[in-house]
Amino acid sequence: MSKASRYGRNTIADKLFLLGELVLLVLSSLLASYAYSYYLSPVSFEHRLINAALFAASVMLCALSVGLYDQKLREGQKGIIKRVVITLLFNAILLELIIFQLFSVLHISTLYLAAASVFSAISVSAFRAFFHYNDITRISRRRVLILGAGERASIIERRMRRNVDKRNFEIVGFTPIEGDKDAGIAEHKLAKFDYKNDLYQYVVEHNIDQLVIACDERRNMLPVEHLFKCKTRGIDVIEILDFIERETGQIAVNLIYPSWVIYANGLDLNQRFKTNLDYKLNVVLAILLLAVTWPIMLITTLLIYLEDGRKTGASVFYRQIRVGYDGKPFYIVKFRSMRPDAEKNGARWATADDDRVTRVGRIIRKYRIDELPQLLNVLSGDMGFVGPRPERPEFVNQLAKDIPYYNQRHNVKPGLTGWAQLKYPYGSTAEDAQEKLKFDLYYIKHRSLMLDLMILVRTVEIVLFGKGR
């Protein structure tokens, strides 16, 4: 296997991890069904095999929805076990209330499902602890040499300090290039050698898999012949923009230059993809979600009315102008989570501990219940399920002046949830808006039906654990 073929997120370790977990889930199911068949009622091997495949697929889908397959998940062992247990509870509900109701012939027994869940909880938790304790990912980490030690290269140093950020690679060093500005990278992290004459030799001797071009000044500074030789020998040569994009799931707007925007792949999708999920699919999903969540919406309406609606006469709903597709304004509909006089002094950012938020509002904001009326915006076509979150015109006008490429997020329909909500915590400042823009641009560049579906599945994690906004 060439060094270049080792590049990417789907490393050997990732595949081993997924395969190991799949095998454990299948074995847990087979063990539970065998015990049931042996002690209670005979079940054919074919029936047990089908249930094992169904059980494993369902558990892995539920695990995805609660973030267990997030490569950058920051959880201790107790947090992992908690998510594993929640996964298996979701799986039991999914199988018992939906799958086995639709396909009753597949149902073995509730006792079988309980036993399979217990076996899975023990084996999967132990496997994950062993996998992470022994740091199995190191078997396929790429050895990366950064060509540059200035301001641009320092972005890699700042953004990828945690071990979880470097699970797919290890940085051998930062090579100072002529023209680099001093950015304070520690001396012991520098790889000092005659890069103009010895780059290829250094790469071979240190078993480098990937070169990242991150120098501040590139014109006539890079040894092109050595880079060409490295590339023809199977060593990956990549721009810092592409490196950050692939490793972090965001586009570093502060590094973008005009030619990159023009020539970058993925920004020229045709018109029919610009609405994220197809409108008809959005409508179907909205109707299904309304059918499931209407009791929650009814209770929320009553609680808001009882808390302050009957005293003040204020509506339980909140309508506000937001900027949508192509920069066109529309009215967003939400459950009111703040006091009626929340903006008597003008518009301002909402904060995590905003004193304008009511008691009911604090709960419904945490679990995103306040967003449910936006299903009406989906039905009207102003929003989709997946896309950048729509912002207020007052903030957009200022952010567009301060942040390069900010208006590009309006090239797709806004959504109820999005890539930025999965990847970035609650934010309420212009700096947070810039960080979220990096994820929004990544989504716009890579948007597809599969990415939208993955975001929808993982939105369960946001709701369940009160993450993002």
UniProtKB/TrEMBL annotation:
Q: Does the keyword tRNA processing apply?
A: no
Q: Which GO terms describe its cellular component?
A: membrane
What InterPro entries does the entry give? Bact_transf (IPR003362), EPS_sugar_tfrase (IPR017475), Sugar_tfrase_EpsB_2 (IPR017464)
According to the UniProt entry, its GO molecular function terms are:
phosphotransferase activity, for other substituted phosphate groups
Tell whether Signal is among the UniProt keywords.
no
Membrane-crossing residue ranges in chain numbering: 16-37, 49-69, 81-103, 109-131, 281-306
Sorted alphabetically, the keyword list is: Membrane, Transferase, Transmembrane, Transmembrane helix
Residue ranges of every copy of the Bacterial sugar transferase domain listed in the record: 281-464
- Provide the membrane topology annotation: Multi-pass membrane protein
Record's superkingdom?
Bacteria
The record ties this protein, via Pfam families, to: Bac_transf
Compartments (UniProt record): Membrane
Q: Which family does it belong to?
A: Belongs to the bacterial sugar transferase family.
Name this polypeptide is given: Sugar transferase, PEP-CTERM system associated/exopolysaccharide biosynthesis polyprenyl glycosylphosphotransferase
Q: What is the lineage of its organism?
A: Bacteria, Pseudomonadati, Pseudomonadota, Gammaproteobacteria, Chromatiales
